[in-house]
Design a protein that fits this description.
alpha/beta; Rossmann fold; about 260 residues
């Protein structure tokens, strides 16, 4: 396999989760030096071990992205460790509460917006500052198919993911001229461990049957399939791609 990210230093946030861990492995396999970050120490360290076991390069820097100082510290520590930052996959997020809007507390609303949107702004801010000191770089943000459409009982999550598309496009318009490309991926339903468990729960059988029907490809996605899209967007092969919102959703948004 071509090592299209050979030697590039890339941060992956939310790296202990299903998409984050799979993408970290994909990026490392493509030659990247992966900075794994999360607040779930055991899961993040397992990702680092898996990368190193495969002959890759990885390090864990713990950071709570709900605090701007920790985001800034993450970038500073990465630069101290590797001397540069070439790419980032801003993937960390919290899930929706599963409540209609009128039942959401202000705390639930603000938590989702802080982690799913404001933290991405902070990540981009400090990542871009680092990249402007070197010959550019590339950033990919995780939005969602729900960044373009809506479902019931997820208003705080949907609002944040719509915001991701806006801030991605705005930043792309500002920094493309400086050699920093910024794009977003929009996953459909991805078969993370949580989704795999729910699929087996009779309570959710009808729901997941309907959701699978919304994916014309006939199945849910695998986390590594998101990773492959992110790999390409972070690579020089995507050198003319800036400000795009790439659906990786099996056709969910096509119908």
């Amino acid at each position: 396999m071509a090592r299209v990210l050979e030697g590039k230093v890339i941060i992956v946030t939310g790296a202990a989760g299903g998409i984050g861990s799979a993408t970290s492995l994909v990026l490392a396999d493509a030659g990247a030096k992966v900075v794994v970050t999360d607040i779930v120490d055991e899961g993040a360290l397992a990702v680092v071990d898996a990368i190193k076991s495969g002959g890759g390069v990885a390090a864990y820097i713990r950071a709570d992205l709900a605090a701007e100082t920790e985001v800034a510290g993450l970038i500073q520590k990465t630069i101290a460790m590797y001397g540069r930052l070439d790419g980032a996959f801003n993937n960390a997020a919290v899930e929706q509460s599963g409540k209609p809007l009128h039942e959401l507390t202000t705390a639930q609303w603000e938590r989702a917006l802080r982690v799913d949107l404001t933290a991405v702004f902070w990540c981009m801010k400090y990542q871009i500052l680092a990249m402007l000191k070197h010959p550019g770089g590339a950033i990919v943000n995780t939005a969602s198919s729900l960044g373009q459409v809506a479902i019931q009982n997820a208003s705080e999550y949907i609002t944040a993911k719509h915001g991701i598309l806006g801030v991605t496009r705005a930043a792309a318009a500002e920094y493309g001229i400086h050699g920093v490309r910024i794009n977003a991926v929009l996953p459909g339903i991805i078969k993370t461990p949580m989704i795999a468990r729910l699929e087996l729960d009779p309570t959710f059988a009808d729901l997941f049957g309907k959701l699978k029907g919304r994916h014309p490809i006939g199945r849910f996605g695998n986390p590594a399939e998101i990773g492959e899209a992110v790999k390409w967007l972070l690579s020089d092969s995507a050198s003319f791609v800036n400000g795009t919102t790439m659906a990786v959703d099996g056709g969910y948004l096509a119908i």
